[in-house]
C-alpha cells in the first residue's frame, strides 16, 4: 500500500475527536470500557464501537484482567503512524 493511502487510512481512524480523547486517556494508563465511558461522558456501547475501530487499526491492544478487558496503546503502531504522518510534510525528494 502506498504511503498516501496509508496516511488517508490513519486520518480516518483519527478523524473523530472521541478517538483522539481515548488515545489521550490511554496514554496515561490502561483502562476498561467502563472507565473510559465515565471519563468521556458517553455510553459504554459508544466507547466499544470506537475501541473496535482503534483495535482493528492496530492502535489499541486489549488484555483480559479478571472480569474486565483493559485497553492499552500499541506504542509501536502509533510511532509508525507518527513517522508516516511526518513524511507527509517532507519534500517529495526526501520522501523517496
UniProtKB/TrEMBL annotation:
InterPro entries: ArsR-like_HTH, HTH_ArsR_DNA-bd_dom, HTH_MetalResp_TranReg, WH-like_DNA-bd_sf, WH_DNA-bd_sf
MF terms in GO: DNA binding; DNA-binding transcription factor activity
Pfam families on file: HTH_5
Keywords: DNA-binding, Transcription, Transcription regulation
Top-level division of the source organism's lineage: Bacteria
HTH arsR-type domain sequence ranges: 1-93
Keyword field contains Transcription: yes
Protein name per its UniProtKB record: Transcriptional repressor SdpR
Native source organism of the sequence: Sedimentisphaera salicampi
Gene assigned in the entry: sdpR
